[in-house]
Amino acid sequence: MVHSVCCIGAGYVGGPTCAVLAYKCPEITMTVVDLSAERINQWNSDKLPIFEPGLYEIVEKCRGVNMFFSTDIRKAILQSELIFICVNTPTKTYGLGKGRAPDLSFVESAARMIADIAESDKIVVEKSTVPVKAAESVAHILRANHKPGVQFQVLSNPEFLAEGTAIIDLLNPDRVLIGGEQTENGQRAIESLAALYAHWVPGEKIITMNTWSSELSKLAANAFLAQRISSINSMSAICELTGADVSEVSNAIGTDSRIGPKFLKASVGFGGSCFQKDVLNLVYLCECLNLPEVANYWQQVVEMNEFQKRRFVNRIVAALFNTINNKKIAVFGFAFKKDTGDTRESASIAVSNYLMEEGARVYIYDPKVEPEQIRLELSYQSNKKFPDRVENLFTICQSPYEATNGAHAIVICTEWDEFLTYDYVKIFESMMKPAFIFDGRQLLDHAALTSIGFKVEAIGKKMMHSSSFTQLQPMSWQT
Q: What Cα–Cα distance (Å) separates residue 225 from each residue in 175, 293, 300, 446?
């Protein structure tokens, strides 16, 4: 029975996962460690570094009781029996596999640190999203650098959290995957981790397998979900040019029990830390395995996602009389989805950049994303293209009414529920006329907005301004 657990990495995976483990397993001591003193201080404060519904309440109950946040990594490793590796695995921006392969330098660093510090046997659990055979690499590092008499067992336990519902997903998981070596010691390690989850997860939902199957299952799950989004988004392009309504098409195919309704809502495009990264990871894996046809198949999922974002902006430009130069555009939402403050790979970043490339003055409002995070994302991306103008092209607003005052158009990029509650009569009166709304999330009541006087354009519905759209010169979809 495991009594002491350490988690290396206090981010989007490590924090919520270990909070729920501490909450459901009160007999264990859970220590979450990170090199960032600032992040650890936030976990020890009333303002957590990430926003997830229900997370603060659980942390408040466990913090200082059986859950601790610390920068003392050495002490946590020495005292633990089981160690989660929950560090970042971004897509490489350099060298071999640039733009597709995951950067495993943080994983390797964590493994070497464990090997250097550990003085007793440890179960090391790979929680970060990693390519197939990464656990094998971690095991090689640990066993090549261990102290005499110290043994390690490496497990794969991928996370399947959806940001915005992470706590619900942890408390009521569809399944828990645990992969390990098919040896006696490997099976004992699997049983030790499974015993923690068994405190609240039914046995039939705890699925054990070999390490490679566990790692590939994570990539496959996210690739399949991203594929569904890109598939319905491809249908939205057809709908806009034919008069079909993508929401009706989505409902029709979603009622087929073989398909189901989930992840079939067309939008401006998927974002987040996992979908694009994991699909590209899978593409790179296929290339390394000399499977170019399979690699090209999955690459199209990402290319369709980029096409959707660019196509949406082209539609905005077309509707606004083929020019948005010096026009004020209000962007509602900067998080990649509602109920989270995460902006990684958010469609709003690409849309805002495309609008600024066209000379628009972009005014951004998001109820949860910190202004500094918005500034960081746009400055980093835009400085590459127009460094002299970037600070003058976007403004971060404190309210939706500030963002829309004098604006030519509103662009919905995130499906925040509060966007449904605004006084759109007041907003309409404050805007330039004609006043446009471009709904990239199929969120608002389009009939009601039209009755107010708005010109409404929505993803997957026939364009009201098709004549002006055809006057645009063909544009490259490459970014």
A: 16, 20, 14, 28
Q: Mean per-residue pLDDT for 450-459? A: 96
Rg (CA), the chain: 24
- Distance between first and last Cα of the chain: 52
Burial of 443 from C-beta contacts in 10 A (0-12 / 13-18 / 19+): buried
pTM for the complete prediction?
Answer: 0.88
Measured distance CA(196)–CA(201) in Å, rounded: 9
Neighbours of 322 (CB within 10 A): 13
- Per DSSP bridges, beta strands 152-156 and 361-365 are unpaired
Report the catalytic residues.
274
Torsion of CA 72, 161, 225, 87, to 10 degrees: 0
Compute φ and ψ for 478, nearest 5 degrees. -75, 140
**Span 388-410, pLDDT tens digits:** 666 678 999 999 999 999 999 99
Find the helix or strand (DSSP H, E) in which 284 lies.
helix 275-288
